């Protein structure tokens, strides 16, 4: 699975409420000065590390519907007949929770009759009654659905919070490429990844970071949430950034300026690097969106290596004036040198919700 998903001429560049901590009151020198509040700004360790995401989907996702041929030669699609749709998530069959694709067929063939499905469709939970069909091909009862229960991909870490030991990555959701549905996390892990090669982006064809990750190596953390504004979880141990010896302050969208900034990302030398970009447009927002800034890659090193922004770079932190202000989320399909960025405040808000 690739964490990329094409939509409206854009493609996700992969697989925040500003939080200000108020310190204790301190007394100013007593030469006619009043006591003042000392405000401690939140700080984060910037990411840029290439990471693997392995995720078990909560429930079983329907990615296709098919006709079943019966013993008498009739072709029936029981799923469509009952009203199932691609993108539906099967949670229970006759009250039995199902977590794996293999469990669906096992439960259905134990029942050998009508089944009641508990299904999640976007934000709604539905109860659907369905009559399975006995297939001529193998003699098994079937619902007429293709299902999946796992997904994996490569992306980029955005930040690590040294206080809460939490992390955020991608800046957008992991979606199912067949359905476009945001996948609900049952359990998952953030893993160390090694970039193998870079497919350069061209006009009309987004590039791609190709990498591998190893289950045997120590995972970076546990995945808790997959949302429209990033994936979030808790790290198993501190995560360091080789380019910065201390955390950076979080920048609000009001502190973002047009002009020079940087992104941190990892290419096929597997070395975390900083590349110059230009922030061309800022859309100040009252509601969360993953398209808060338009950025353009100006660093010749990155342009020569990848052509600009490619899939797998989503989550690359955007740094300006030594503040973390956001993350890369999309690349323009018709101009891989440009893309969108999300404000870091929306990621932090989503992580805290």
Written overview of the protein:
It is a single chain. The chain is mainly β. The chain has 2 domains: 6-55 and 150-352, no CATH class; 67-143, Roll (Pdz3 Domain). Helix content is 9%, strand content 47%. It has helices spanning 78-82, 101-111, 300-306, 344-352, and strands at residues 6-7, 10-12, 20-22, 39-41, 43-46, 50-65, 68-69, 75-76, 89-93, 96-97, 115-121, 124-130, 133-134, 141-142, 145-161, 166-169, 185-199, 208-213, 221-227, 230-235, 248-250, 259-266, 272-282, 293-297, 317-320, 323-332, 335-343. The chain has a 21-stranded mixed beta sheet that branches. A two-stranded antiparallel sheet has the order 3-4. A two-stranded antiparallel sheet has the order 7-8. Strand 15 (145-161) and strand 16 form a beta hairpin. The longest helix has 11 residues, at 101-111. The radius of gyration is 23 Å and the shape is elongated. It starts with 5 loop residues before the first strand and ends with a helix.
């Amino acid at each position: 699975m690739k964490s990329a998903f094409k939509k409206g001429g854009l493609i996700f560049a992969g697989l925040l409420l500003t939080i200000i901590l108020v310190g204790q009151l301190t007394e100013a020198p007593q030469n006619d000065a009043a006591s003042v509040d000392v405000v401690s700004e939140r700080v984060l360790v910037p990411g840029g590390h290439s990471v693997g995401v392995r995720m078990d989907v909560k429930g079983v996702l329907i990615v296709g519907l098919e006709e079943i041929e019966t013993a008498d030669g009739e072709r029936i699609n029981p799923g469509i007949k009952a009203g199932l749709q691609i993108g539906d998530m099967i949670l229970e069959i006759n009250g039995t929770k199902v977590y794996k694709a293999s469990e669906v067929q096992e439960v259905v063939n134990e029942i050998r009759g009508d089944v009641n499905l508990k299904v999640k469709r976007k934000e709604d939970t539905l109860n659907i009654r369905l009559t399975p069909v006995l297939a001529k091909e193998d003699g098994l009862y079937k619902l007429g659905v293709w299902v999946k229960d796992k997904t994996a991909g490569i992306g980029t870490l955005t930040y690590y919070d040294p206080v809460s030991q939490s992390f955020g990555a991608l800046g957008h959701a992991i979606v199912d490429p067949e359905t476009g549905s945001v996948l609900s996390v049952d359990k998952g892990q953030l893993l160390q990844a090694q970039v193998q090669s870079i497919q350069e982006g061209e006009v009309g064809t987004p590039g791609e970071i190709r990498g591998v990750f190893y289950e045997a190596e120590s995972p970076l953390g546990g995945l808790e949430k997959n949302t429209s504004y990033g994936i979030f979880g808790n790290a198993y141990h501190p995560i360091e950034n080789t380019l910065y010896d201390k955390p950076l302050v979080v920048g609000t969208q009001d502190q973002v300026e047009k002009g020079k900034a940087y992104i941190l990302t990892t290419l096929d030398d597997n070395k975390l690097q900083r590349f110059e970009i230009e922030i061309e447009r800022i859309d100040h927002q009252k509601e969360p969106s993953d398209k808060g800034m338009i950025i353009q890659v100006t660093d010749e090193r990155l342009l020569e290596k990848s052509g600009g922004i490619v899939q797998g770079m989503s989550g690359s932190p955007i740094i300006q004036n030594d503040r973390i202000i956001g993350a890369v989320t999309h690349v323009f399909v018709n101009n891989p040198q440009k893309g969108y960025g999300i404000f870091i405040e929306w990621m932090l808000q989503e992580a805290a919700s």
